[in-house]
Design brief:
120 residues; mainly alpha; elongated; CdiI immunity protein domain-containing protein
Amino acid sequence: MDICFIKNDYELHDYINHLFKYDVDVDKEKVALVILKQYLSHKMPKQMDSQFDYHVSNLRFLADYLDEVNLPEREAFLSGYIVAYDDEIFGAATGNWSISAEEIYEEFYQYLQNWLLKYT
């Protein structure tokens, strides 16, 4: 009945946010884990491609929902590893490193696979 008295878009937005925040019991971490697993299986390539920045952006978005997954084991957050690998790949691509950006990407991809196996 409350929805009948909403006057504008802002009130509707607030109403929906409060509805989902308090009335719906959704485990965001479980959902994010499932989405991350599907993303790695179906979207993220095993070898580095021209959409690397796009993939990192998506991974960071998902990792923001997974900060509490590895707290019991007191490991660093997944988002921190994503940023670190992104920095290493950027450095290898722009500098004279002894390892290529593609090799770091392969290590990064394997790290994500291992992380998922550990937490799913």
